């Protein structure tokens, strides 16, 4: 491709800076990972998996893990269903509703987390809802909905409408088209949106901290409380496990469209459909 | 409008969006209105809300000490945004000018910390600079003495934490813009004898303006309301607006005052977003 040839190198200073920043970003994480595999006994440093065993033996932490998984699963199923339905429903509609929805999803994307958290807390208080995992789930759905909508929408706009037209010409009704043509084509985006909202939920600290019930901490909240007491190899092990999970999910996410929604890389330059469109122009 | 496919004629499909609309209304819009209402209410004896209307919360929110904290937070948010912009432009230039296969690696490398839990990243940073951490070991072996407590709780560390946390929000939009950028313009400028600095200012920057402003919003807005980073890296002395609001809500249980403070912060942010859109809109019209 033509534009691939003409990319003159960036100045050396920019390249050095890139590597220095990446090194600074990863150095603490590397130290943390190392710390979780090391044991110091009488001045002797040895490799060990001891700290990981301790993490898994800690009922408190395992309870928090269970809460995190429960909240993550429920909230991502719910936000995937709602977000996909909204994206499909509003796609190509010129109704006013679309503008309203876009505005509201903008609000949820750009407002500071702290405002989100305390506004939900006040609302639950006014509604006299008891704080617990259910309020955490509601909060997590509210902030991940927009991400699912964005992910699904980015796939919708690349769909070839002639496929639907063909199905209609063959006599398929609206719902049949949706079920047999559109949804299967959207599958990668839906899966991506699901993973993304699970990750957002699993990683959320601040909003959970505000709206969770007493004794129903998720893993990040537990980590935050434990960290106030100081650092320890066991916390290193817990953090390392959570980091590795994110790494694993990122590798999976990299293949899905949500990656491109989040990280701005132009999908078209890599996508088969996109280049076909370019040729037609 | 592009194409009016048969899809646009269907009215039944739009009903699919109603549950989500209700959810948004009930759990995003109404809660924001509640905050506005609470900010005008009175604090109950035991920390609840009494619906007696008052503007007293606002007169307290505008008191000098609270405005001072707001100013500190604005300053830090501004410095963070500026640093992220400078680093982001140079980093995304280097990323986008790399060969195609390297580019994916760089995007992943920048995205991974962004997807990693904030508490974990802060934790790692504390391990790094903390007592008997690598920084202390290196500095002591170099003969520099220091107090690890001072090192692990200060303003600079908060700033460092903010920049490293929000950098991806700047780098990724800028990288997206660079991806679409026509690099032959750089070549042409090089042929005409321009140096890297000149190329950056007069060829590249004008093309990045949109990504730069949206990146700036993405960095500025969350850093103004940040709670976790100053709380865990700043120590008790470094109170910022996010911490102030959280204290009012969770510790003093003075929700009306906390709400008034957040309404103030939201209004400020809305003003900034409004100016941003007006400027951008004007450019589109021209």
Automatic annotation (TrEMBL), chain A:
It is found in: Cell membrane. It is a multi-pass membrane protein. The keyword Transmembrane applies. PROSITE patterns: ABC_TM1 (PS50928). Its main location: membrane. Residues 65-253 form the ABC transmembrane type-1 domain. Keywords: Cell membrane, Membrane, Transmembrane, Transmembrane helix, Transport. The chain crosses the membrane at residues 16-38, 69-91, 103-125, 131-150, 189-211, 237-263. InterPro entries: Bact_Polyamine_Transport, MetI-like, MetI-like_sf. Belongs to the binding-protein-dependent transport system permease family. CysTW subfamily. This is ABC transporter permease.
TrEMBL record, chain B:
The chain crosses the membrane at residues 21-46, 66-93, 105-124, 157-178, 257-277. The keyword Cell inner membrane does not apply. Residues 70-276 form the ABC transmembrane type-1 domain. CDD domains: TM_PBP2. Keywords: Cell membrane, Membrane, Transmembrane, Transmembrane helix, Transport. Pfam families: BPD_transp_1 (PF00528). It is a multi-pass membrane protein. It is found in: Cell membrane. Belongs to the binding-protein-dependent transport system permease family. CysTW subfamily. This is ABC transporter permease. It comes from Bdellovibrio svalbardensis.
């Amino acid at each position: 491709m033509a534009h691939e040839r003409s990319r003159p190198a960036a100045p050396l200073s920019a390249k050095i800076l890139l590597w220095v920043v990446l090194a600074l970003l990863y150095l603490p994480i590397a130290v943390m990972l190392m710390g979780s595999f090391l044991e110091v006994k009488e001045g002797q440093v040895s490799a060990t998996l001891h700290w990981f065993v301790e993490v898994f033996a800690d009922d408190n932490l395992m309870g928090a893990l269970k809460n995190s998984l429960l909240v993550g699963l429920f909230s991502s199923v719910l936000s995937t269903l709602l977000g996909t339905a909204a994206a499909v429903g509003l796609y190509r509609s010129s109704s006013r509703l679309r503008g309203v929805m876009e505005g509201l999803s903008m609000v949820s994307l750009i407002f500071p987390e702290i405002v989100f958290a305390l506004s939900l807390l006040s609302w639950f208080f006014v509604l006299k809802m008891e704080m617990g995992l259910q309020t955490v789930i509601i909060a997590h759905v509210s902030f991940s909905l927009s991400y699912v909508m964005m992910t699904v929408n980015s796939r919708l706009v690349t769909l070839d409408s002639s496929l639907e037209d063909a199905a209609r010409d063959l006599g398929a009704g609206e719902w049949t088209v949706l079920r047999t043509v559109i949804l299967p084509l959207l599958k990668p985006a839906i899966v991506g949106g699901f993973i993304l909202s699970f990750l957002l939920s699993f990683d959320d600290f601040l909003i959970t901290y505000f709206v969770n019930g007493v004794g129903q901490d998720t893993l990040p909240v537990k980590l935050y409380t434990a960290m106030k007491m100081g650092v320890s190899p066991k916390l290193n092990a817990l953090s390392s496990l959570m980091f590795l999970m994110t790494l694993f999910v990122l590798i999976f996410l990299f293949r899905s469209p949500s990656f491109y929604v989040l990280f701005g890389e132009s999908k078209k330059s890599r996508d088969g459909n996109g280049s076909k469109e370019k040729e037609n122009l | 409008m592009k194409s009016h496919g048969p899809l646009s004629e269907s009215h039944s499909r739009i009903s699919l969006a109603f549950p989500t609309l209700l959810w948004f209304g009930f759990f995003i819009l109404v809660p924001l209105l509640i905050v506005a209402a609470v900010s005008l209410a009175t604090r109950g004896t035991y920390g609840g809300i009494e619906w007696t209307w008052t503007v007293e919360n606002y007169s307290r929110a505008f008191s000098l000490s609270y405005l001072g904290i707001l100013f500190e937070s604005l300053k830090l948010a501004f410095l963070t945004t500026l640093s992220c912009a400078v680093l982001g432009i140079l980093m995304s230039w280097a990323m986008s000018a790399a060969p195609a296969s390297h580019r994916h690696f760089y995007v992943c490398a920048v995205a991974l910390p962004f997807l990693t839990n904030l508490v974990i990243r802060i934790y790692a940073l504390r391990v790094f600079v903390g007592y008997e951490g690598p920084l202390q070991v290196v500095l002591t072996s170099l003969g520099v003495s220091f107090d690890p407590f001072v090192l692990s709780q200060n303003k600079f560390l908060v700033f460092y934490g903010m920049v490293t946390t929000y950098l991806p929000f700047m780098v990724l939009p800028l990288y997206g813009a660079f991806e679409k950028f026509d690099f032959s313009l750089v070549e042409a400028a090089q042929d005409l004898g321009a140096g890297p600095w000149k190329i950056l200012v007069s060829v590249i920057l004008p093309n990045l303006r949109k990504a730069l402003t949206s990146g700036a919003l993405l960095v500025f807005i969350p850093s103004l309301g940040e709670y976790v980073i100053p709380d865990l890296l700043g120590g008790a002395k470094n109170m910022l607006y996010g911490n102030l609001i959280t204290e009012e809500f969770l510790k003093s249980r003075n929700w009306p005052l906390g709400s008034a403070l957040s309404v103030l912060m939201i209004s400020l942010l809305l003003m900034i977003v409004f100016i941003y859109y007006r400027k951008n809109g004007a450019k589109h019209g021209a």
